[in-house]
Design goal:
The chain is α+β, with helices and mostly antiparallel strands. The strands form 4 sheets. The chain has a 5-stranded antiparallel beta sheet with strand order 1-2-3-5-4. Strands 6-10-11 form a 3-stranded antiparallel beta sheet, with no helix packed on it. It is 35% helix and 18% strand.
Length: 313
Amino acid sequence: MNYEGAEVLEIGGGNTRVDPSVAAALPKGCRVLFTEGHGLSFWANTGRIDVELVNGTLQSFFLKVISKELGKNMVHGEFESMKAIYTLLPDFAPKPIAWGTYETVKDTHFFLCEFRDMSDEMPDPHKFTSRLAALHQNSKSPNGKFGFHIPTYSGNLPQINEWEASWETYFTKSMRWALKLELDAKGPDPAFDELIPILFDKIIPRLLRPLESDGRVVKPSLVHGDLWYANSGIDVNTSESLIFDACCFYSHNECKANKPSVTIESMKLTDTRSIKTNLASGSQSATDLVPNIWQHTTPMFKYPHPKRITKVA
């Protein structure tokens, strides 16, 4: 865990004190009534803050607290990611409020958003994929390229988000970074020495280059970046699906948006092609561009990020 404690500002245990930086982001004049631990994180301390507004109404917020420079970069990336999603689909994500650094505890950082009470039920697959499709279709890369304006983190591992005009180039850079982290964490592997050249010299060009050849183009679409069942839920009040804990970037719309090994199995969906049709409906996809290539490219799109390969303690 990248959290070293916050002394008298710990969440829960009857504490109602919050750091001045957090207080400044809360509604002006509100009074903190209650804090409690809420949710689980491998990297941070998370909790709920209940406040009373000046007009007497109650409001709740979700707070994530994390330490060190890595933690600062993680909450900044999460804030920018959630802001991008919320701007496009405000009913599909909790509203991000602020991110920043504690005034009273050294090298401690936070992410603050509205609190949405969620159930553990799995979302309706058709509604959920329709919302994902809307996110992909309605998003527009600010410069028409693949990437994101700041680094984002899947867990505690950074994504390579430098802007690239070509999807093949962006994906290749991401894959090289993933393999570098794998080798750094676990040491040399003779199998990698044999397979890596084949991957980059033959497999990736053969599968991805046709998507951007002969006048074809791939639209950079905003994707969540780490979408699995633990980063989604059902709003108790609206019964609508929500997504959170994002590490966004602009990519091929099928990249990391529908992982058959996670999303489909956990949602007990058996028709993979139906899910892919829902996700791609109304937008370009490998299915439309090159017949029968989607079943080869999509499994590969699950692995552009190092979190899929290894975890760094």
